[in-house]
Amino acid sequence: MAYARSIVLVAVVVLSAHLQSSRAAEDAVEDSATTDTAGRRPTMQQLAPDSGLGKPPSPRDLAGSRAELKRRFREPLSHTGTAAGARLAAETLLTAAVTENDRSLKWLMLDEARQLGEAAGQAGLVNRAITLAAATYDFDAIDTELRCLKQIPLRGLDATRAASLAVAAEAIAIRAEADRRPDKAVAATLLAYRAWQRAGNKDAARQAAVRHDTLVHGTTQPRGVGTPVQ
Fold first, then answer.
1. CB-based contacts of 90: which residues, under 8 Å, 6+ apart?
2. In this structure, what are the phi and psi dihedrals at residue 48, rounded to the nearest 5 degrees?
3. Cα–Cα dist 35/83, whole Å
4. Residues 119-145, mean pLDDT to the nearest whole number
5. With contact defined as beta carbons under 8 Å apart, do 124 and 165 qualify?
6. How far apart are CA 144 and CA 87, in angstroms?
7. Helix pair 123-134, 159-178: axis angle to 10 deg
8. Could you state, in order of their start, the residue ranges of all structural domains in the chain?
């Protein structure tokens, strides 16, 4: 268990360092994907608690908090039609959620930040929202983050955001492998490979292809680099 936690910690540190370095470049990108993906966003999966954390609020619990969310964050949420506006709104929600005591409102804030990050193609925002949520609520964070990253259209990303998504996917793969969930590790590694290709990083894509085939076939030789098994 201690070894698995160490792996996860290393992955989070590496991911955080990479995302911090790319944040300034990402702020200048305007992406129409914010509105294109709004109708098909997944929601953070609500599972029964088994880790000592409380389960996420029910739809009934959330109903009374939605009006408060809109009232408190009316200004930032009114500018989410661009990547820059979505990022600013998500950052505002994430910052406020850290000290929010209302569990229902906190969940809504984090879920909205996650959706904005996903729609804007910002893997870092998705990761931060889910990481904060997982510290308070019991749900499948690995599956949720992987599903959200898969919803981001790679063809709409520039090299910086594609690289950020690749790093986030690789971190999920490490966590999934530590949790003995090989199916999630394989899926996350394949996503990382495709994101590295989009970013134009051939060396990283090659390494991801090797890693993918190692997980699937138990071999360190890629089966035709550039075309991992689907």
1. 112, 113, 116, 117, 120, 122, 125, 129
2. -65, 140
3. 10
4. 96
5. no
6. 20
7. 30
8. 1-30+158-230, 31-152
- Residue 32's region, left for phi above 0, alpha for psi from -120 to 50, else beta, is alpha
Closest CA to 155 of 38, 28, 40, 33: 33
Kindly report the number of other CB atoms within 10 A of residue 68's CB atom.
14
Torsion of CA 72, 75, 80, 86, to 10 degrees: -70
CB atoms within 10 A of CB 152: 24
Q: What average pLDDT does range 129-154 have in this prediction?
A: 97
pLDDT of residue 39: 43
Classify residue 97 by burial, with Cβ atoms within 10 Å: 0-12, 13-18, 19+. Answer: buried
Task: Say how many CA atoms lie within 13 Å of 64 toward its Cβ.
Answer: 7
Look up residue 43 and give its DSSP letter.
-
Per-residue pLDDT tens over the stretch 180-208: 999 999 999 999 999 999 999 999 999 99
Q: How far apart are CA 102 and CA 111, in angstroms?
A: 14
What Rg value do the Cα atoms of the chain yield, rounded? 18
- Whole-angstrom Cα distance, residue 144 to residue 52? 19
| CA distance linking residue 162 with residue 142, whole number of Å | 19
Token representation of residue 188: 């996350």
The encoded tokens of residue 131 equal 């990481």
CA angle (130 as vertex; 182, 193 as ends), nearest 5: 45
